[in-house]
Here is the input.
Amino acid sequence: MKLFTRKVPFVPCFLRRAFTLAEMMVSLAVFSMVMGGVAGLQYISARGIKEIYATTDARSARTMALNFLHFELANAKRGSAVVSNDSHTIEFINPNRCTPSIITSQFVFDPAMKTLTFRPDREYSTGERRVCKGPVDISFTLGSKSLDPAQTTFLSPDALVTLYVRTQANLAYSNVDNRDGECVVYLRNP
Here is the structure.
């Protein structure tokens, strides 16, 4: 005696018109696991790339700031440099930019935004240019203690400006590049 015997007709798979619910659930689970793994790998590699390029970004910001500052300050008039704002601002007269009136140029470093801005004309703020933004700390000092500790040089102290451009670990993306860049600029124009 055969109980519960019912013959199910065989239907080839190419004649079926849709997937069953079980097949869909299994394929969705496999797809989710694969995509989750891919997303996880991308996240890990993005964090790694950020760490790798943090050194380059820090050095680039420091070098760009030093180069631009040195170029502009070297053309400044001797004795015209004035440091203010807790050594984060320097104003100077650049004879190469002078029109009929004397133009005072200005470098301003904003420690909160970590941005160095150059204003070719301090009064009108025309042509304001962001020199660098990044993991740097910039300060200015008149004279040079490293070149002339006793301040007895043949040049007066107002002919030299010392730039300190420092890359700080707590300002950056990582703690891989903590160096100082110090540059003494001789103001060439008498």
Residues 55-186 form one domain.
